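[[Encoded backbone]]
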Amino acid sequence: MTERLRFFTLLFLLSLPILAGAQGVSTAPIDQALGRSGQKTGDVYRVSFPRTDLHVSVNGLAIKPGLALGSWAAFLGTDDNAMVMGDLVLLEDEVNPVMTKLQAYHFDITAVHNHLMEETPKVLYVHYMGHGSAKQMATSLRTALEASKTPLEKPAAAAEEPAPPAWVKTVEDAVSRKGTFKGGVLSFGVPRTDAVTMGGMSIPPAAGVGEAINFQAADSGNVATTGDFVLTADEVNPVLAELHARNLLVTALHSHMLTEQPRLFFMHFWCVGSPESVGDGIKAALSHVAVK
């Protein structure tokens, strides 16, 4: 744990009584700084930067941005004393220029790694955390992203979503959960039952500590799935064994944060198969995880 991180964690602990009565950060200054709006879930304000400029494929399957190419930032706290954490999708030659900018603005880098395998072009994921004024952090984050080719212009108004294709209900029935279908991607966000804390502060699932499971259509009536299971140490190998038994490939196992409690491990996976079999595999893996 760096001295800077210790310092800001202490500041956050001292501010907890104030935060308890707060309604979260104001969204308008963040929107203005980032040039786009996000989504409020409880006290978490999450802004997305999908890499719509990239044309990434895995074994010939074109990956939709919502499946595995979404950079994001989650803000929580108060306007003057906020925390931001998130994940940036970057090409290899973008990683160090962006990290250099982030560190210049006093962000901590908490992880750099892969989520996929055999993708073309290769993409890496940079996880980061910062503390301070919400507006200033949003301004600094945008400046750091300018060191990449991440689209930063205001997104066009979203077209009306078509009716979900039949495979969506098939997957939902197999997983036994209702997902969200947007941009051709079916997404499940599944919160853990246990509280996740960092420096004594509760970290909500929307800030990146919930199970994130995505599906998109593939060829021949199949679907592709990827995402990450958020696991405690004793859940790692039961989930890994279940995924392997059902032909879901584990593509990465690593941390995303530095000082969270309980210690969490993020297991990324990949599979192409029938909606029924893939959905059943995800449900079976979730049975080994403490989720709601």
